[in-house]
């Protein structure tokens, strides 16, 4: 098959969605499928074959690699017409463009809801009343879901959210985002502790991800302060970068954690397995995850996980078996962290269970499930092209009409 992946941003932008799409592309190609990435910005020398970029207004002062456009170039449109199926990974631009350019040619359109946009809105605009984000999703996602041919939910939490906001669930498939577990299970060059200025005697608590307000990192620092007061061997390492890094560094000093917390900065995704190999356990206080790839990667590396019981993380970590989950409360989280920092045997048992549990997310397994859905849609489209085209066109027009009503 010829498969088109539609994303608002791609490399050099780093995110869970970018990493997932890049890995999915490689895995599909290993299976013999021609796979293309449709995105925005100027062509880059480091782009792999099959990346099709359209011009856009650069917004890189806000997010690296971000460009805004509401259309694809003529060249991109010509390539997109040759796809057997297109798969959008963002709802507001890429999904709409997928519908706009694929519908006239009877090409099936798939959409994955990767993000809890309601929780992100609450994290970035906390002054908004509770529930506003979910109301916005209710106004948009059900109509988008009726317009596409399949909605992919990467976790049970997202599946339940879609059901709650009124999406027709017969159109939804639960398919986790896959992870290349092999590179995390046995990294070729594990990072030595000395490279982080640490010793083998220290217990390393690690977080990997964006340093943004949606990740609840001030909460993590406050919880770690309680652990650091009891366990002098505990050390927190944060791998990643983001808009609140300087605020977090300042918080570290204010909490008296200077020398107990290391900010590594952004590292290429290929190096993440090396850093996880230097850790003893993984911690995340985020409550905005959909399908937490960093948590799955840590589990594949044999690390127990401490997290807040919330969508995404709660779907992935089995509390008491592969890690510990707590309520969104600093003291409870600190107690859970301390339980693992102070007990090497518990870390070892839970780490082994985490590694075993992570294999249900192996990218080869999840991609085979996704390809089966692609083939089913392509077969439907080819079985009766005229009926498929008529139905597709109607759904696209209905979506446009509902969108006009929503924006008026």
In summary, what is this structure?
The chain has 16 helices and 15 strands. It is an alpha/beta fold and 408 residues long. Helix 11 (293-300) packs across helix 14.
Properties at a glance:
16 helices, 44% helix, six-stranded parallel β-sheet, 408 residues, alpha/beta
Structure description:
The chain has 16 helices and 15 strands. The chain is α/β, with parallel strands linked by helices. It is 44% helix and 16% strand. The protein has helices at 16-30, 74-80, 94-102, 117-124, 132-147, 156-164, 181-185, 217-230, 245-254, 272-276, 293-300, 313-316, 330-341, 344-358, 363-383, 385-407; strands at residues 2-6, 34-40, 51-54, 57-58, 67-68, 85-88, 109-112, 150-153, 172-174, 203-208, 234-239, 261-265, 281-284, 305-308, 323-326. The strands form 3 sheets. Strands 3-2-1-6-7-8-9 form a 7-stranded parallel β-sheet, sandwiched between helices.
């Amino acid at each position: 098959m010829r498969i088109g992946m539609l994303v608002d941003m791609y490399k050099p932008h780093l995110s869970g969605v970018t990493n997932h799409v890049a890995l999915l592309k490689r895995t599909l190609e290993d299976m013999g499928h021609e796979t293309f990435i449709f995105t925005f910005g100027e062509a880059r020398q480091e782009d792999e074959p099959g990346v099709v970029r359209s011009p856009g207004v650069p917004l890189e002062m806000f997010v690296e690699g971000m460009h805004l456009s509401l259309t694809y170039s003529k060249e991109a449109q010509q390539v997109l017409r040759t796809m057997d199926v297109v798969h959008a990974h963002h709802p507001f631009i890429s999904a709409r463009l997928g519908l706009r350019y694929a519908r006239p040619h009877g090409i099936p359109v798939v959409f994955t809801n990767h993000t809890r946009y309601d929780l992100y809105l609450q994290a970035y605009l906390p002054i908004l009343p509770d529930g506003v984000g979910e109301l916005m999703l209710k106004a948009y996602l059900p109509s988008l879901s009726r317009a596409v041919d399949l909605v992919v939910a990467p976790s049970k939490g997202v599946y339940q959210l879609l059901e709650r906001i009124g999406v027709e669930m017969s159109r939804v498939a639960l398919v986790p985002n896959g992870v290349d577990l092999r590179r995390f299970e046995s990294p070729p060059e594990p990072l030595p502790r000395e490279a982080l200025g640490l010793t083998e005697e220290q217990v390393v608590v690690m977080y990997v991800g964006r340093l943004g307000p949606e990740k609840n990192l001030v909460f993590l620092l406050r919880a770690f302060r309680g652990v650091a007061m009891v366990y002098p061997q505990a050390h927190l390492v944060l791998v990643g970068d983001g808009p609140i890094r300087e605020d977090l560094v300042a918080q570290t000093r204010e909490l008296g954690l200077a020398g107990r917390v290391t900010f590594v900065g952004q590292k290429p995704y290929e190096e993440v397995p090396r850093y996880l190999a230097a850790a003893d356990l993984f911690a995340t206080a985020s409550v905005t995850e959909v399908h937490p790839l960093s948590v799955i990667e840590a589990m594949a590396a044999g690390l127990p996980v401490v997290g807040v019981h919330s969508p995404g993380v709660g779907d992935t970590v089995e509390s008491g078996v592969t890690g510990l989950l707590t309520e969104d409360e600093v003291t409870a989280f600190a107690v859970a962290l301390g339980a693992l920092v102070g007990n090497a045997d518990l870390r070892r048992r839970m780490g082994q269970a985490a590694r075993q549990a992570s294999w249900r997310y192996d990218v080869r397994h999840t991609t085979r499930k996704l390809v089966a859905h692609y083939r089913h849609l392509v077969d439907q489209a080819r079985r009766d092209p005229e009926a498929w085209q008529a139905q597709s066109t109607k759904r696209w027009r209905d979506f446009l009409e509902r969108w006009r009503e929503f924006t008026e």
